[in-house]
Design a protein that fits this description.
Bound molecules: zinc ion
Shape: globular
Radius of gyration: 16 Å
Number of helices: 1
Distance between the termini: 17 Å
Number of strands: 10
Oligomer: single chain
Strand content: 35-45%
Largest sheet: 5 strands, antiparallel
């Protein structure tokens, strides 16, 4: 089961700001990118002005493997928003690079989700102006 949308209601849009624009630019190209420190190589997520490890201001947007594992999840049985049709599951994915990303799993029933399950990124073209990175069970 994947989350489905009731498109008769406006779907909430992610706020795109100066610090996360690189992430959303990558998603628009079906690439999962994160800030990476050019000085020490530390992945910086969520985006911020400086590297929390070495304080460098020199960063770049680097592509993630898009592979990881389910760190945690929750299944919504009632929708908190009229555009989201329940039930659906929200997962916290821990990527191989160490960053954690809140997302959804596609093509799976909630009872099949388990902590540590290997997953890989897919991109959901929801509308002309909204593409979201989601995950599916990796084989
Ligand atoms: Zn650094």
């Amino acid at each position: 089961m994947s989350i489905t949308y009731d498109k008769t209601h406006p779907i909430p849009m992610p706020p795109i700001l100066w610090d996360n624009k690189g992430f959303w630019d990558g998603v628009a190209k079906h690439e999962l990118v994160f800030q990476k420190c050019k000085e020490c190589g530390n992945w910086v997520h969520p985006p911020r002005p400086f590297c929390p490890k070495c304080r460098s201001l020199e960063k770049e947007w680097a592509r993630s493997s898009g592979k990881g594992t389910v760190y945690s999840w929750v299944t919504y049985r009632e929708s908190p928003h009229p555009a989201f049709k329940a039930p659906y599951s929200v997962v916290l994915v821990e990527l191989k690079e160490g960053m954690r990303l809140v997302s959804n799993l596609v093509d799976i029933k909630p009872e099949e989700i388990c902590i540590g399950m290997p997953v890989e990124v897919v991109f959901d073209d929801i509308s002309e102006s909204l593409i979201l990175p989601k995950f599916r069970k990796a084989v």
